[in-house]
Specification:
The complex is a heterodimer of chains A (314) and B (406). Chain A is an alpha+beta fold. Helices cover 50% and strands 15% of the residues of chain A. In chain A, the strands form 2 sheets. In chain A, strands 2-1-11-10-7-8 form a 6-stranded antiparallel β-sheet, with no helix packed on it. Chain A has a 5-stranded mixed β-sheet with strand order 4-3-5-6-9, with no helix packed on it. In chain A, a hairpin with a 5-residue loop joins strand 5 and strand 6. In chain A, helix 1 runs parallel beside helix 3 and helix 4 runs antiparallel to helix 5. Chain B is an alpha+beta fold. Chain B has 2 domains: 196 residues, Thrombin, subunit H (Beta Barrel); 190 residues, no CATH class. In chain B, 19% of the residues lie in helices and 39% in strands. In chain B, strands 5-4-1-2-3-7-6 form a 7-stranded antiparallel β-sheet, sandwiched between helices. Chain B is elongated. The N and C termini of chain B lie far apart (67 Å). The chains are: A alpha+beta (314), B alpha+beta (406). Chains A and B meet through helix 6 and helix 7 of A and helix 5, strand 21, strand 22, strand 23 and helix 6 of B.
């Protein structure tokens, strides 16, 4: 039988074979297993062999006691079964025997992980840089030396690298793997997706002359941001995919909610702005038919109703 | 020529006029401090006083908070009651309670261009002043009739009389062109006659007078828009397009080109403005029409960049139009394709209502042609203080007038 001291994230911090019973666990140096947790008593647990050969963990009348996990339940002693987890002080410990079945090994690729990440990173970097270059180029209407555009693209890329670097730093702390390339890929794909979402929603809004597309844009952006958060967090933690997904969903919902709140509170204060749909695209992208001037005026009658309602509110 | 003996003409006129001219103040009740100062003059023996509407409009805006007061040249003071208004010609009629008083008589003869006139008032609250100037005829290119007077009318003289050398009133001081020397405007005396002749109810409440202001504004926009809309709008050719041209004598138009050295497009701008508007309240002027056409032409931009530029120009109007919450509702807008068969337009229409003047609206329209990959026309108009129906009709006419040049 082995006793394992676990990290908070479930990783094994240390592992020791229980060769002989009784076996003692505590903070004092005369124990068989020493745990440096100030909430663990100097002599906390004794593992004893019963007459039938089974092992029991017995609480040595400590202040903080011995807890079974699941719904925490304080017990005087616990029968040790394979894969049993208990808590003493602030420390989780787990028992496993030699028969414990471990999962089969993962398939390793011939190339190291960093190299694989680099393979996807560089094409993404080139594509994202091209997209940024195009975006800046399309929005300059003077003859501009390419070097000037490259400079502004570089500034954007540096910001993206800084963002990826922060994640890589925390990943290195938490999992010992920086995964800079993977974070970089995620960041660049995310930025590109945001740019393309805005562009696309403008084209759809124009083509169909519909505000529906622009009102859906925040949802699409939330999906992009949620996916980015998911991928970054997956790389810096060892939690399960499902758990990370729910964290990402919660964070995204909170972000979207606070953005909505900011928008909503701004809408409560008077504004003399003209809030029309500003998209204008080339003729080929127009799919909706034009209204005749007379139809245009007739169908704008809803504006009057809306304004007269505003007026009546005062 | 030897100088005439005895007192100067202006001196005689001033001596004769000084106790018929009043300083008029709108005073905040709470602190007894003045919110606006102007001039006014007596027009009848029983205490009728004429001034500019804009001198007393602050009172009409918040009658509970303000009082209108007069101060005579000799320093005596007292309250005035507002009894009638002509917002379009910027006149107000007030009643001074109490004793019989000396008053001005109106000129009945026409003035000749170049004739001398004298404007009396209280410039910058510096005390009663007389200013000599020249009558220069009626301003022809104008929606709202004015006399062009070459003389130094300064703020505070508003509402004071302009008199002939015989001492008869031929106009009321109203405004001065900023950024110009001595170019001033007077309200012709016939509108004073009309205001004096109009039926009046001296017990009218400020609320009733405010409704009268509204009715006058509705009537005047009805009048000039029905004339404008009686026929199709005049058109001019702008590059490959046609668009509304100067709508009448009352508009001034200007042109300019944006054509910088490295710029890969050319923008030709034509803007027309009625230049005049009706003062209703502080920050509220109505009755103006402005429009602007911008022809954008690509010079090697490529269609994607050209449309990025065109889109940026089209969207640049969202910044807004001046206006305060107490005066206007927010704008509500609609963006749609419109236009005649041959030429699709992307049109954004925004409308807001006047809060104190029910039935009046501001219209703003911007339209962009969507038919070519290297040229486009962006046209914008704003029309302030019109009825919804007239505004709508104008929008329709305007859109119908944007087309392709054959």
């Amino acid at each position: 039988m082995f006793v394992e001291v676990l990290e908070r994230n479930g990783e094994v911090r240390s592992r020791m074979r229980i060769a002989d019973a009784p076996f003692t666990i505590g903070r004092a140096y005369d124990n068989d297993l020493i745990i440096d947790d100030p909430y663990v008593a100097p002599h906390h647990l004794r593992i004893e062999r019963a007459d039938d050969g089974s092992l029991r963990a017995v609480d040595l009348a400590t202040r903080n006691g011995l807890y079974l996990l699941g719904p925490p339940q304080r017990v005087q002693s616990a029968q040790i079964a394979p894969d049993l987890r208990v808590r003493i002080g602030h420390t989780q410990i787990r028992f496993r025997d030699t028969q414990f079945a471990v999962a089969p090994e993962l398939e390793a690729s011939a190339s190291p992980r960093a190299l694989r990440q680099a393979f996807s990173f560089y094409p993404v970097l080139i594509a994202a840089a091209a997209l940024m270059f195009g975006d800046v180029h399309l929005s300059t209407f003077e003859q501009t030396p390419p070097a000037q555009i490259v400079a502004s693209v570089l500034a954007l890329l540096l910001a993206a690298f800084a963002w990826a670097g922060i994640w890589a730093f925390f990943g290195r702390l938490a999992t010992r793997h920086a995964n800079f390339y993977a974070h970089g890929t995620t960041t660049l794909l995310g930025i590109s997706a945001v740019v393309l979402t805005y562009e696309l929603s403008g084209y759809v809004a124009f083509a169909f002359s519909s505000d529906l597309a622009s009102s859906m844009t925040p949802l699409a952006l939330a999906a992009v941001v949620g996916t980015m958060i998911y991928r970054h967090v997956r790389l810096v933690s060892r939690s399960s995919a499902r758990r990370v997904a729910s964290v990402a969903a919660i964070v995204t919902t909170l972000l979207a909610g606070s953005m909505w709140l900011v928008d909503y509170s701004a809408s409560l204060t008077y504004s003399a702005e003209l809030d029309y749909t500003p998209y204008l695209k080339a003729p080929a992208f127009r799919l909706a038919p034009p209204e005749s001037p007379q139809e245009f005026v007739v169908r704008s009658a809803a504006l009057r109703a809306a304004i007269d309602r505003l007026r009546a509110q005062d | 020529m030897p100088a005439p003996a005895g007192p100067d003409q202006a001196q005689v006129l001033f001596d004769n006029a000084k106790d018929k001219v009043l300083k008029i103040r709108v005073v905040l009740n709470a602190t007894q401090s003045q919110a606006s100062v102007g001039s006014g003059f007596l027009v009848s023996a029983d205490g009728l006083v004429v001034t500019n509407f804009h001198v007393v409009s602050g009172y009409l805006q918040r009658p509970a908070d303000y009082t209108v007061e007069f101060t005579r040249h000799d320093g005596t003071r007292g309250p005035l009651k507002l009894i009638n208004v002509d917002v379009v010609h910027d006149l107000a009629l007030l009643r001074m309670p109490g004793e019989r008083s000396r008053h001005f008589r109106m000129a009945s003869r026409a003035m000749a261009k170049g004739e001398r006139g004298f404007s009396i008032g209280n410039p910058h609250d510096l005390g009663l002043t007389i200013v000599e100037g020249t009558y220069n005829g009626l301003v022809l290119e104008s929606l709202y009739e004015h006399i062009h007077f070459t003389g130094a009318i300064n703020p505070g003289m508003s509402g004071g009389p302009a008199i002939t050398r015989e001492g008869l009133v031929f106009g009321v001081n109203v405004a001065r062109l900023i950024n110009a020397e001595l170019v001033s405007f007077l309200v012709p005396v016939k509108y004073v006659h009309r205001l004096l002749g109009a039926a009046r109810d001296e017990s009218a409440t400020p609320q009733a007078l405010l409704l009268r202001v509204r009715d006058q504004l509705v009537a005047t926009q009805e009048d000039y828009l029905s004339r404008l809309l009686a026929s199709e709008l005049p058109q001019i050719a702008i590059g490959p397009y046609r668009a509304p041209a100067r709508l009448g004598e009352f508009m001034r138009c200007w042109g300019r080109a944006e054509d910088e050295m490295n710029q890969q497009y050319r923008a030709s701008v034509q803007s027309c403005s009625s230049e005049e508007s009706i003062f209703v309240f502080e920050n509220v002027r109505t009755g103006a029409i402005d429009f602007e056409h911008v022809l954008l032409e690509s010079r090697g931009l490529g269609w994607m960049r050209f449309y990025k530029l065109f889109e940026a120009r089209f969207g640049s109007g969202t910044g807004g139009v001046p206006g305060l919450e107490e005066d206007f509702t927010e704008f509500r807008c609609r963006t749609e394709f419109s236009g005649e068969r041959q030429l699709p337009l992307r049109a954004a229409l925004c409308i807001r209502a006047y809060k104190r003047l029910p039935g009046l609206y501001d219209f703003w329209l911007r339209a962009a042609t969507v038919d070519r990959y290297d040229k486009g026309l962006l046209t914008t108009f704003s029309l302030s203080g019109v009825s919804y129906d007239n505004g709508s009709r104008f929008v329709q006419r305007y859109l119908e007038s944007v087309g392709k040049e054959n």
